[in-house]
Amino acid sequence: MKSNEFINILAALPEQIEKAQDICSRVKVDLPEKINAVYIAGMGGSGVAGLLAKSILSENLKIPVELIRDYAAPFAMTKNSLLVAVSYSGNTEETLSVVAQAEKRRVPMVFISSGGKLAELAEAKKIDIFEIPKGYQPRAALGFLLIPLLYIFEKLKMAPGLKEDLAEAVIELKKLCGEIGPGVSPHQNEAHKLAAKICKTFPLIYSSAALYPAAYRFKCQLNENAKLLAHAGEMTESNHNEIEGLCALKRGAHNHSLLYLRSERDSERTKKQMEITKSLVGAQLGGVREIFPRGKSLLCQMLSLVYFLDMVSAYVAEVNGTDPAEIGTILKLKKELSR
Q: How far apart are CA 160 and CA 1, in angstroms?
């Protein structure tokens, strides 16, 4: 895949969300009436979808929702739980390991995948599956991975107003595309301008707990798309530890950049902590760049941040002359694991 093709795919997130909604409208899932917990198994780009879904729906979750990003299924996962296995390829070995353990425990399951072993198992065992389009890299298929997850929670009556929130998000993302998409001049493109400022730095990204999935997603996108190390931290936890390390940095003796993801939805105490932290560490880090979301709903705000920052990561790759679609080291790792 060419670099510009990959950037165009990232830019097409709003259309991807609409396609995912259409897929979901045609899938019938039979979920247990009573469950005591939901477990979401997924790695990498597939796992980020679970992280985003849990945070977006946090105000309406009536039961515990836990993420599994490992080979082992938690002991607490029983036949009274629900497992949602998310693997774009359908062949993620950690996720398949969790599914195998869940099957032995007779845990009800739903899959989200484009094929692979998960699709084969779904057909053989009559497990409900949201089959999504092939041909994408997982980190560029967020709409196809996230929207089915949200629809599952809507069916569980834990995602009120989902269709309205998604409609708001699509409108705002399409507006953003007109402002920061690949056809917009770098001189007028705020995402490109930010990319040019951080492209040679080690970005330190902080947000409130509610927006942390967007910060973490940005870190991961910088890692994979731009081949750039980055760190994501959560306010206010970071003010109980990391702040000492930040304040100890000597200006000019490091090459970090500091970014805050902020929202009016953040609590007043969190806002105050972020303002105080800015005054304490801003000088050492050459100032703080603040990024605000679009829209009213948490879903729209989260997706608008993700969209803007996805484009920043792609533009960092472009500025640095790096192919955002290339993941040679990850592929080498998988090859060695398969031996």
A: 38
